[in-house]
Amino acid sequence: MRCVQWMNLVFAIVAALPPLAHVLELPNKLALNGAIWLAVQQQLYRGWGSVIGGPAEIGALATSVVLLVARRRNAKTLWLTLIAAFSYAAMIATFFMLNAPVNEAVRGWTPASLPSDWPAYRLRWELGHSIAAVLSVVGLAALLRARILEVRD
To answer: Which residues have CB under 8 Å from 126's CB, separation 6+?
Structure first.
């Protein structure tokens, strides 16, 4: 079980990094004009979600569920692990509700075909990653607290 605990924390840390990076770059991204923003979306982020973000979030959720079963006899660590599992499930749901539709739309745009409402797409995409950042910090904090409680016992 110790291996699952460490894998869980690694997945949780890796799952937090991309959305936190998006939050840190948010002020600069909001200042980009449409053509540059489109280029960033189509070029810079290509492959990140399927290689790092998605697998880390799924890994964090899966290992949290395994830990839920293992921690079922300890109410404190059970509730913390449940909070973490909920956070990772909500991160994945947020991606599919907010980010994935924007990714799909942006994929077919060119600077010449950029719609006049592109700032709404940008805001939706950034909002999705901001929500994911908060959820990832909540999940990671809950898992770290649960681990600390286990070590103390």
So the answer is: 22, 26, 29, 30
CB atoms within 10 A of CB 94: 21
Q: Which amino acid is at 67?
A: L
Structure-token match 């990094």, residue found: 17
Angle formed by the axes of helices 2-30 and 54-70, nearest 10°: 140
Annotated domain spans of the chain = 2-152
Of 51, 34, 25, nearest in space to 114 by CA: 34
pLDDT tens per residue across span 27-61: 999 999 999 999 999 998 877 777 788 999 999 99
Q: Which two tokens stand for residue 92?
A: 């994945």
Half-sphere exposure of residue 153: CA atoms within 13 angstroms, side-chain side: 12
